[in-house]
Write a structure and sequence with these properties.
The protein is mainly beta. The chain has 4 helices and 15 strands. It is about 15% helix and about 40% strand.
């Protein structure tokens, strides 16, 4: 009996000390090793396919995922004009640092070239990830909440909206706070058809913004950029008896 309790104790201790892992690397051209900026790097948890992490490579082709829950992930890397790269990552106990991902150019027949205009789904702007609403299909009567939950990395957990695993504290529309401090209410009262772009970023605390000094306290925020042709309206609900 004592041995069984000891084994259970060791098991829970190990589980309790299970640490989050990280994954970093860079994306390069396979022929000349030139770095590829603005490539899309996506991790999908194979046990929970709704758990999707996405990064856009920087100017030097680098990317970094931190605070990843241990598990087995599907890695997918894409870049315009190159063949997609897929691999399985076992991020169980150890982090993977400095992985080089080589992409090969996609062969294109010069006899039959078809140019198709597609909206770029995501792009990195400093510490902000920006998504184009055109890249996600929703019903005509859909709300902003319906649109956002189709974006990789954004989830709805009851009345809580999470982005990249963190709870969204505030929602802004064209840089202005919308519907107070309840993101769920804000997103349910905003039609999806007026959204042009969605930005996800870490917002500094009010104190940091006031003083200009970063105190290290941030919260996940969403800024919705509306279409230029739809900015002359007011949002809300009218009740009458």
């Amino acid at each position: 009996m004592k041995n069984k309790l000891f084994i259970l104790f060791i098991f829970f201790v190990i589980c309790g000390f299970a640490q989050e892992v990280s994954f970093t690397g860079n994306v390069q051209d396979s022929s000349d090793n030139i770095t590829l900026p603005s490539a899309t790097v996506k991790l999908t948890n194979l046990r929970n396919t709704e758990n999707i992490l996405i990064r856009i490579t920087g100017k030097d082709g680098s990317f970094a995922f931190s605070g990843i829950k241990p598990g087995i992930y599907l890695l997918h890397v894409s870049y315009m004009g190159y063949r997609d790269f897929t691999d399985t990552l076992r991020l169980l106990r150890r982090s993977i640092e400095g992985k080089t991902i080589l992409l090969g150019k996609e062969a294109v027949s010069m006899n039959a070239i078809e140019v198709v205009g597609n909206a770029i789904p995501a792009e990195q702007k400093e510490d902000t990830i920006q998504y184009s609403a055109k890249g996600f299909k929703v019903n005509k009567d859909a709300t902003a909440e319906d649109l956002l939950t189709k974006i990789p990395g954004i989830q709805r957990d009851g009345n809580t909206i999470k982005a990249q695993g963190e709870q969204v504290k505030q929602v802004f529309v064209d840089g202005k706070q919308f519907f107070g401090d309840d993101p769920a209410i804000a997103l349910r009262n905003l039609p999806a058809d007026l959204i042009d772009k969605v930005q996800i970023y870490d917002r500094m605390s009010d104190q940091s913004q006031f003083t200009g000094f970063d105190d290290g306290n941030t919260s996940k925020a969403i800024n919705i950029i509306t279409r230029m042709t739809r900015r002359n309206g007011k949002f809300g609900k009218l009740y009458g008896g």
